[in-house]
Amino acid sequence: MTGLTRRTAADLAAVVASGEASAVEVTRAHLDRIAAVDAGVHAFLHVDADGALAAAAAVDASRAAGVPLGPLAGVPLALKDVLTMRGIPTTCGSRILQGWRPPYDATVTSRLKAAGVVILGKTNMDEFAMGSSTEHSAYGPTHNPWDLDRIPGGSGGGSAAAIAAFEAPLAIGTDTGGSIRQPAAVTGTVGVKPTYGGVSRYGLVALASSLDQAGPCARTVLDAALLHAVIAGHDPLDSTSIDAPVPAVVEAALTADVRGMRVGVVRELTGEGYQAGVQQRFDEAVALLAGLGADVVEVSCPHFPYALAAYYLILPSEASSNLAKFDGMRFGLRAGDDGSHSVEEVMGLTRAEGFGDEVIRRIMLGTYALSAGYYDAYYGSAQKVRTLITRDFAAAFEQVDVLVSPTAPTTAFKLGEKLDDPLAMYLNDIATIPANLAGTPGMSLPVGLAPQDGLPVGLQIMAPVMADDRLYRVGAALEAALLSRWGAPILEGAPVL
Amino acid sequence: MPSITPAEVAHLARLARLDLPPDHLARLAGELDVILASVAKVGEVATADIPPTSHPLPLTNVFRADVVHACLTPDEALAAAPSVEAGRFRVPRILDEEA
Amino acid sequence: MSTDLPVVTDIPVGDAASTRAVEALMPYDEVVRTFDPVLGLEVHVELGTATKMFCGCPTEFGAEPNTQVCPTCLGLPGSLPVVNAVAVESAIRIGLALNCDIAEWCRFARKNYFYPDMPKNYQVSQYDEPIATNGYLDIEVPTPDGPRSFRIEIERAHMEEDTGKTSHLGSDTGRILGADYSLVDYNRAGIPLIEVVTKPIAGIGELAPDVAKAYVGELRALMQALGVSDAHMHQGSLRCDVNLSLRSSPDAPLGTRSETKNVNSLRSVERATRFEMQRHAARLAAGLSIVQETRHWSEALGSSSSGRSKEQAEDYRYFPEPDLVPVAPSREWVAELAETLPELPSAHRRRLQADWGLTDLELSAAVNAGALGPIEATVADGADAAAARKWWLGELSRLANERGVDVGDLPIFPRDVARVIALVDSGALTDKLARQVVEGVLAGAGSPDEVVAARGFKVVSDDGPLLAAIDAAIAANPDVTAKILDGKVAAAGAIIGAVMKATGGQADAAKVRELLLNRLGLTP
């Protein structure tokens, strides 16, 4: 039943609910697809075929027993390897966690399970979510289904590639500086970073606690909304979780109407530094929005040019502390424990051996930024820039309902192209980072292929805190207009794997 | 900002418990210099009158009732440990009496 | 601990002289003639909450290792902290009882350093925004000239989490420095702590050790009165670090300080302060400098020893804990907590002094002996205040002294002492037998009644109520008693009659007669 892997999540849920196919059949079709193509894509680090089939069988049993099914029951999903799943290896793309099987489920994981979503396995990522290409995984890179020689974005390249390669209709990503949105942009998929605090971080292995946010990855805006609704909502296990009703994202995706909405193009996130083809498709999409009845204006966010610098101080600072627990004492890799070394030495050897270069680089940077004598100039100043970015957003949202920009400055680049130039790599996140600093939600959706290289281009929509529904309303309207222009979903134009 | 010295890099590596070979430390010194020069840009706009933001949302007073929850079993707690003895985590000898 | 392991302290098992440099000490009276001491005390109090600071794991003392842990307090990847509401409330109440300002807004911070007893390799604490600041605690210090009052200024009280417990194994000497490896139990990791830090305490001269002891004792009493902690020093639920420096005169700048840890009894607080004063003085007099270092107090050796001296100051890289949101206690909440504070120890002492009719000196003696709480509990269990005071300040203090422990830490309950007093009052025990019963209880032979039964004192006790009635009748009839003692034994009938009446006619008249004559020393 290969046709099943081309269906949307909403379709598959209906297929299962109606009995057209069983959840086990849907799951098996996706496991077969993974077996067929993942050697080339390498989206998955671990496939839990037995667990997935058992979960699917449970959904089928519930249906047979007449138990009402949730809106995504029986739909397969790929889980980024940064979220814990009880008894299933969780590596965060790092050697230091090789073989670790957590004794507990992340809140996102338990909500997926409770909803009858079938978790196929864990997806590849840059080590501890540090990167924009998934090349920093200790287990080898993921390849972009549009061109296997190119990067699928990062850090959640595995989740985005799994969807783009039809290995799963849905995936969970995490976004600290763009790790859901930028991979979505370069793989022609939809990715949403919800409002900070909208989705529980409990069980999300922290990169930067004040920036991390889990969110949905899908091939359509509606599928993303359905998944968003399943995983979002207050969690008493996460102190930073928002205790308020989840924005009506599914209803917004179904509304798909931008008439009278005010859309602001962020002046600082266009023009110089953006690939011509990216800029062109972005401009066309903005014109399309205007044609749909949106009121499009240009808006200035004068401090956005400082966001990248602030981010690369705040993130390494928090990460240097968050990653201290990886010391080989309670779990994971331990190196050099031959009886001749002290605990201090064994910790040092373990961490040097277990962490890759990018992780080490950022731990060192963060340790420096927090050090006595440098704190005010670096970390302290970065926190002030964070205030300025938040004020920029607040001022902009006085004028408009949503902001838009290209998601990433370029289309997918070649594997290895930026690996030795950290600063060039960091620039991939230039448009996505402001939303993380301010805690505001953002979505990337595909708006076409760049004429020069034929690779997908993403448009980013940003909304105020807890107005995630606006992303879906605008995104769904744009998606529908583009679909009628193209005649088929963008991924139908991707090479057949 | 002054450029970062090899001694500083070695000190940072010690603070961060990273036992790195000298060539890696030397390489890091150069990389950190470049990155720090770039991120120092925050100082251009971070004036004294601007309050810092540590949390993206203005939440306060998130508390938990003082009620006992289920613990891990000792097997679960110790399952991932590289070394275990007598129900405890076994760790290499400690040189310092306290940190 | 129910699993037996050779848990090692810092006491050298081998030749002490070979492993520990013998410190030169200056005689104490010379120290106080030559130098002015400045004290700083940091006390960590483990709160008696049902669960840990940031997770719902229980806090029972002495559980099997690693049975009170979860992903959060084990620091497993992905876990997150959530603040215990009762811990915050306790912190505010402690702050109020210490006359502190309660912050309107404060945050937790991460203190970053690597150590295997700390699961995350950072401690969640408070740094520049403690919940309580700028208070004081009034204490009374006994002196030969009577009690003297001091006001100890409190710098801050803040919330943080405790670490796990480490045992050091595999060495011949059993010392940490020679151990081959260590074992870690994280049951204690994450238990809520309040750290109370004093401002520098100056102007106390030769009384420094007594001030230190009185302050820690008063703080302990305060915690117990608030009901926020059992504050058992021997179980580590109240731990003291003594910071001490000397200067040549009260006008001179502060000298270099040492920080002595592991000071785990009131007696040790006093001894450690005295020892450090003598050690600093000897070094300064010899022209040596004081090393700013952490030292460890050994109760057994009565001395402190140097931890590894730090080549450079630790850089803890504090920053606001991003996994927790700020704590902003409303003024209404703080006011409500202030209004519902219980009677605090100083007011309580004044009330007891009035109730029991004690002089300042008598009260001071009870406080100084650490016996006030036990006496009060004994009275609460039905004993007369004078008798309770006599036991705790007399026999029990003597026994505590013999054992080198605080009287309150003797393995006898106030209710046991109350029972012994009742047995003596009823005539069932003589004072001499009562002392034997108390020794039996302290030796672990059970409750007073069990000791009495086991040692065969039971027979006597059958006559107890009768003897009490006879004593009452004797006291009520002094004239008759005088006649009997003059040899007019027949006059005994009047007393026997009174006893028969008092006992409702249940007594055996012949038995009463026999006991009466025996009581008066006239063997029939």
The residue ranges of chain B in which pLDDT falls below 50 over 5 or more consecutive positions are: none
Helix content of chain B: 25-40%
The outline of chain C comes out as elongated
Strand order of the largest sheet of chain C: 3-6-7-10-1-11-12-13-14
- Sheet-strand content of chain B, in percent, reads 5-15%
Major sheet description of chain C:
9 strands, mixed
Distance between the termini of chain C: 59 Å
What can you see in these coordinates?
The complex is a heterotrimer of chains A (497), B (99) and C (524). By secondary structure, chain A is of the alpha/beta class. Chain A has helices at 9-18, 23-41, 49-64, 107-114, 157-164, 181-187, 221-231, 249-255, 276-291, 307-322, 343-354, 357-370, 376-399, 422-426, 433-438, 468-486, and strands at residues 44-47, 76-80, 118-123, 170-174, 190-193, 214-218, 262-266, 295-299, 402-406, 442-449, 456-462. In chain A, strand 7, helix 9 (276-291) and strand 8 (295-299) form a beta-alpha-beta unit. Chain B is α+β, with helices and mostly antiparallel strands and 99 residues long. Chain B has a two-stranded antiparallel ribbon with strand order 2-3. In chain B, helix 1 (6-15) packs across helix 2 (22-39). Chain C has helices at 16-19, 28-34, 85-97, 208-226, 266-285, 331-339, 345-356, 360-368, 372-380, 385-393, 395-403, 414-425, 431-442, 448-454, 458-462, 464-476, 478-485, 492-502, 509-519, and strands spanning 36-46, 83-84, 101-102, 109-112, 122-125, 132-141, 148-161, 165-169, 181-185, 192-198, 238-247, 258-263, 294-298, 303-306, 319-320. The longest helix of chain C has 20 residues, at 266-285. The N and C termini of chain C lie far apart (59 Å). Residues 1-20 of chain C have low confidence and may be disordered. Chains B and C meet through strand 1, helix 3 and strand 3 of B and strand 2, helix 3, strand 8, strand 9 and strand 15 of C.
Please describe the topology of this protein:
The complex is a heterotrimer of chains A (497), B (99) and C (524).
Chain A: H1 9-18, H2 23-41, E1 44-47, H3 49-64, E2 76-80, H4 107-114, E3 118-123, H5 157-164, E4 170-174, H6 181-187, E5 190-193, E6 214-218, H7 221-231, H8 249-255, E7 262-266, H9 276-291, E8 295-299, H10 307-322, H11 343-354, H12 357-370, H13 376-399, E9 402-406, H14 422-426, H15 433-438, E10 442-449, E11 456-462, H16 468-486
Parallel strand pairs in A: 2-3, 2-4, 7-8, 7-9
Antiparallel strand pairs in A: 1-3, 4-6, 5-6, 5-10, 9-11, 10-11
Helix pairs in contact in A: 2-3, 7-8, 8-16, 10-12, 10-13
Chain B: H1 6-15, H2 22-39, E1 63-64, H3 74-78, E2 84-85, E3 88-92
Antiparallel strand pairs in B: 2-3
Chain C: H1 16-19, H2 28-34, E1 36-46, E2 83-84, H3 85-97, E3 101-102, E4 109-112, E5 122-125, E6 132-141, E7 148-161, E8 165-169, E9 181-185, E10 192-198, H4 208-226, E11 238-247, E12 258-263, H5 266-285, E13 294-298, E14 303-306, E15 319-320, H6 331-339, H7 345-356, H8 360-368, H9 372-380, H10 385-393, H11 395-403, H12 414-425, H13 431-442, H14 448-454, H15 458-462, H16 464-476, H17 478-485, H18 492-502, H19 509-519
Parallel strand pairs in C: 12-13
Antiparallel strand pairs in C: 1-10, 1-11, 3-6, 4-5, 4-15, 6-7, 7-10, 8-9, 11-12, 13-14
